[in-house]
């Protein structure tokens, strides 16, 4: 029986990092924008808009309710349209990004809603514009919580990259399925589990440290 080499494990780690970084970067940008929009356009928000909020909110809920394994299959035509294939590491980036954007948007929304209404009222009393309130008051006040939210999103993304192995997406998940599951290689399965645990622990630790430094008061 063919055994896995250290070079394959190293390649899988790099592929996993690639599948985490790109979707997280894109997801953080669009997810943060969506999260902000849902906060400011909600009832009694600083830019209250019933129509925008009632469109965005259910869309986010719909995508958040679809399990990642099903989402990967459901958007195969879209994935092929974007990258020309539904198999491989690049192909996995599409469902991973679609998965993480609404996930981050909801986490960002929750973090921003933690900001005291008194802070917003004080900013409005000083004559701050909606953009100034968002940029100079809302985001800075929520920064510690936002870091923890992105940490949670990153860990969720790690789990999704592991599932991406089912479509040959590469990474640690692909190794676990190809060698650990299909070839009944317990040693490989243990190695992949340990690697994923290390990923999660390192990211959570970094997130906790940054959050503590950024929190005010």
TrEMBL record:
It is found in: Cell membrane. The chain crosses the membrane at residues 20-40, 52-75, 81-104, 146-168, 188-210. Keywords: Cell membrane, Membrane, Transmembrane, Transmembrane helix, Transport. It is a multi-pass membrane protein. Residues 13-207 form the ABC transmembrane type-1 domain. Its main location: membrane. It holds the Pfam family BPD_transp_1. PANTHER family: ABC TRANSPORTER PERMEASE, TRANSPORTER, PERMEASE PROTEIN, PUTATIVE-RELATED. NCBIfam families: PRK10782.1. Belongs to the binding-protein-dependent transport system permease family. This is Methionine ABC transporter permease. The lineage of its organism: Bacteria, Bacillati, Bacillota, Clostridia, Eubacteriales.
């Amino acid at each position: 029986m063919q055994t896995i080499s250290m070079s394959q494990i190293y390649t899988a780690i790099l592929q996993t990092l690639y599948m985490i970084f790109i979707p997280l970067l894109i997801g953080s940008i669009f997810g943060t924008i969506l999260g902000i929009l849902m906060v400011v356009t909600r009832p009694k928000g600083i830019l209250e808009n019933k129509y925008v909020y009632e469109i965005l909110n259910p869309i986010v809920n719909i995508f958040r309710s679809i399990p990642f394994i099903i989402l990967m299959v459901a958007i195969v035509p879209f994935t092929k349209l974007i990258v020309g294939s539904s198999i491989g590491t690049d192909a996995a980036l599409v469902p991973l990004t679609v998965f993480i954007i609404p996930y981050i948007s909801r986490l960002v929304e929750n973090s921003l809603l933690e900001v005291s209404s008194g802070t917003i009222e004080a900013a409005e009393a000083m004559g701050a514009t909606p953009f100034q309130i968002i940029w100079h008051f809302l985001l800075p006040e929520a920064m510690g919580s936002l870091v923890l939210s992105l940490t949670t999103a990153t860990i969720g993304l790690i789990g999704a990259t592991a599932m991406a192995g089912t479509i040959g997406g590469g990474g640690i998940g692909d190794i676990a399925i190809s060698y650990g599951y299909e070839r009944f290689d317990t040693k490989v399965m243990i190695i992949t589990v340990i690697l994923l645990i290390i990923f999660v622990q390192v990211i959570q630790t970094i997130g906790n440290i940054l959050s503590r430094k950024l929190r005010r008061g």
